[in-house]
Amino acid sequence: MPRILVVDDDAAIRELLRFVLEEEGYEVIEAANGAEGLQRYQADPTDLVITDLQMPGMDGLALLEALRRMVPTPALLAISGDWEALTQARRLTPHTFAKPLPLAQILAAVRNLDLRH
C-alpha cells in the first residue's frame, strides 16, 4: 500500500486529506509542521509528501528543499493559499495546488504519480 505523508499546521486539512486518500487505498501519515514532517520522513520514508507551504517554524518550502537534498527525485505535492509561495514551490515540484483544496485535482495528481508498487 503506497504511503503518503501529509504535512499541514491545520488539523482539519490533514484530516480531510487523510479521509480522501485513505478512501483511495493509501496509507496516510500526518505531521503538523515542516520539522515534524522531515523527522517523520527521515525515520520512515513515504512514497509521496503533500505539504502546506505556509506553516510556523519550518515552512513547506524549506521542507521541500530538505527532501530534494535527501532524495534526488522525491514525489512532492505542495498546497497553499499564498500565490507567491506556490510560484516558489514550482521550482521544486510541478504539483502545486491553491487552497481551498481542489480535492478532485489533487486525487488525479496523486493517481498520476503511480505510487502503487
What report would you give on this structure?
It is built from five helices and five strands, in the order βαβαβαβαβα. Helices cover 44% and strands 20% of the residues. The longest helix is centred in the N-terminal third of the chain and has 13 residues, at 11-23. The mean pLDDT is 94. It has helices spanning 11-23, 34-43, 60-70, 83-89, 103-112; strands at residues 3-7, 27-31, 48-52, 76-80, 96-98. The chain is of the alpha/beta class and 117 residues long.
Q: How would you summarize what this structure contains?
A:
The chain is α/β, with parallel strands linked by helices. The protein has helices at residues 11-23, 34-43, 60-70, 83-89, 103-112; strands spanning 3-7, 27-31, 48-52, 76-80, 96-98. The chain is built from five helices and five strands.
